[in-house]
Predict the structure.
Amino acid sequence: MKLRISHETTYGYDQPIRNLVQSLRLTPSIFEGQKTHDWRIEIPGGIRGPGFRDGAGDWVEGWTLRGPAEEVSVRISGHVETRDTAGVLRGHREMIHPLAYLRSTHATAPDKALREAAMSLETTGDHLELAHGLSALIAAAIAFRPGVTETHTTAAEAFALGQGVCQDHAHALITVARLRELPARYVSGYLHSTADGQAHEAAHAWAEIHVGNLGWVGFDAANRCCPDERYVRLGSGLDASDAAPIRGVAMGTGAERLAIRVQVEEMEQ
Amino acid sequence: MMVHYNEMFEGEAVREPYARLSEWVRTMPEDFRQMKQAEAEALFRRIGITFAVYGEGGDPDRLIPFDMMPRVFEQAEWRRLERGIKQRARALNAFLRDVYGRGEIIRAGRIPARLVYQNDAYEKAVVGVVPPRGVYSHIIGIDLVRTAKDEFFVLEDNCRTPSGVSYMLENREIMMRMFPQLFRKNHIEPVDQYPELLRRTLESVAPAKCQGRPTCVILTPGHFNSAYYEHSFLANLMGLELVEGADLFVDGEFVYMRTTQGPKRVDVIYRRIDDPFLDPLCFRPDSMLGVPGLMDAYRSGGVSICSAPGAGVADDKAIYTFVPEMIRFYLGEEPLLNNVRTWTLWKDDDYRYVMANLPDLVVKEVHGSGGYGMLVGPKAVKEEIETFRKKIEANPSNYIAQPTLALSTCPTFVEEGIAPRHVDLRPFCLCGDRIELVPGGLTRVALREGSLVVNSSQGGGVKDTWVLSE
C-alpha cells in the first residue's frame, strides 16, 4: 500500500512559553514491511538538534524552540510504502537484547487478575501460539470503548474495567506476555482505516512480542489482528510513556491545550 | 574466636611501616592528645565537612569522627594493591562497553543474560552509544578489606558516583596542619594531586565535537543533598563551575551553561545525580533536577557525561560475583585482587547452605547500601537471626551471603587510650585516556569495639591513609 500521512500536533499556551525542548520519535521504522519517502518534520520557529538512530532502531530527533511562543506545532508529512509481513518485524536493525523488555513499569505492573489471566492459558511450548492466545484473551477481556480510560490508566485498571482503547489493549497484552516470560513492548504508529473498517483514530498503538526464531511480532489486540499493510510503525518502548512519539518540556506556568490532526490516506495507484 | 590481623603490631613487635608513628604515639602526653583531638574537631567543623559518607543519609549536620592515628601502607604493599585496582577498573569498563554493545561475555556463556539485561541499572536508552575512549565509569571506588599481611578482598565496586574523596583530601590536610613534624619524619606520598588528575580525566573524555580546551562542570542535585559539601569542595579545587540542572539547557545539538556573559557551551558533565533524574525526556518525566534533552545531546555525541548513564549495571552485588570472570574474559589475566566468596540466595544449593549457616555468615540486600538491612551472623542474637531468616524466606532473590571476614584492625584513639579497631579502604580510581590512582584512599574505621561495620551511619569514623615512599 502507498500511504500519504500528515500529522500535526499543536500545543497552545495561556502564557507564552520559553525554552521548549522536545525529543521526537516520529520517523517510520526501516524494515521489510515499510519504506519511507519524502519524510519531513517541521516545527516553525524551532531549531533542529541532534538526529540519531538509537539502540531500539528508532530515529530520534531533538528540537528546541527558544520562544516566547503562544503556540507550537509539530508538523509531519510524507509517504510510506507498506507491505504485509504478517506482523513480523523482519529486517529491522536494532541492538537491544530482547530480555531488556521483560522489565515491568508502572503502567504495565501486573495485579492478581492479570496474573490469573496470564496463567490461565495452557501452552504446548510454542511461543507464537501462546502470543496469539494472549492477544485473543486481552481482546476478549477489554472491549474497545473510547472515553472510559485516560492516558495514565494502567493495564491493571483497564483490565478491571473491561473497557479501553488501543493503549490499554497494548499495555494489558504486554503485561500478560511478560508474565509468561515473553519479552514484550509498546509500539506507536499510524493505522489506515479502510472504508469498510470500524472508525479508528489514525494515530495508533499496539504491542510487539518476541517469539523465538521469528523475533519481534506485532499484535494488535484492539483490532484482533497482527499489523499488516495498513499499519505504519514509528517507535517502541517499555510502555506508552517510554514509546511516546513526542516528549517535551517547556518553561512556562500557564495551562496547555493540545490539538492533534492525523490523516492517513491511500495514494492513487 | 577469629584472629584479626593487626596492621601495626605483630605480637608485641611494631611492624616496619609504623615504626616512627609508634614512637610518636608512645611519647604523646595525654593532655596533648585531648587538645589535638579537640583542635581536629574544630577544624572539621569550621570547614563544614559534615556530610554522610557514601550517601548513607543520617543527620547531615553531624560530624563524622576523625581519628588522628593514621593508617599506613608500605610502598610494596600499595603497588600490589594498585595493580589489582587498576586491573579491576579496566575490566569493569570493558564489561560496560560490551553489555551496551554486542554482549560477547553473555554470548560466551560466562555471565547469565538475565542478570545483565533485566538489571534495574541496565539502561536500554544507551545501547549502542560508545562514549569517548570507550570509558563508561570514570571514577571507580573499590571497597577493600584486609584479612592478613598479603590478603586483601574486594567487598564491592562503585561505578556510579562514589563519594568520600573529600574526606581523603581533608584528612590529609588536617593531619599536615596539626602535625607538620610527622610529615617531615615520614616520607609519605601526596594525595593533593587528586583534583588535578580528576580534572585531566574529565577533559580527556571530551566529545569529538568539542573545540579547544573542554569546558567541564559538576552537576549537583543541590544543597539539600548529603554530599553537597563534596560537590562544591571538588568544584572549588578543580576550578570548575558547580551547576544545578536549571543552570544548564540544551539548544540544538549542544548543552550550554547560563553565565553572566551569556551562554557557554559545556563539553563534559561530572554528574552527581542518579540516572533516573538526569533528563525528564528520557528517564523519569517528573524529575526537576536534570536537564531536558540532555540524553539526546549525549547520545548524539554533543556532550560527555561522567559516569556514563547505565554504568551502574557493573557494580550491582549480583554482577559483583562475576568480576573475576570479566578480568579473565576481557584482559586474559588472572585477578590480582580476591572477591569474597558469595552465595546468591536465588540458587537452591546456595540457599540451603546459607539458611543452615546463618549464625556464621554476613547477609546483605542485593541493592542495599550504607550497612542497613544487613545481618552480621556472629554479632547477632538468636532473635535477630530468626527475624532475618523470615525476611530471606519471603524474598530470597533479594539477598546474597558472604563468610564473616576477619577484618584487619588498626590502632585507634579511644577513650581509654589507644586500641585496635576494624578498618576498610576505598581508593578512588580515575579512568580517562589513562588510568590513575592517587596513593591511598579513604580509610573508614568501626569505632565501636569489636564492630565490623565501618559505615558512618553505624558509628564509623575516618583516618588519614599513608603510603610510604621508598
User: Anything to note?
Assistant: The CA atoms of residues 235 and 248 of chain A lie 16 Å apart. Chain A has a mean pLDDT of 93. Chain A has two domains: 2-81+246-266, 98-237.
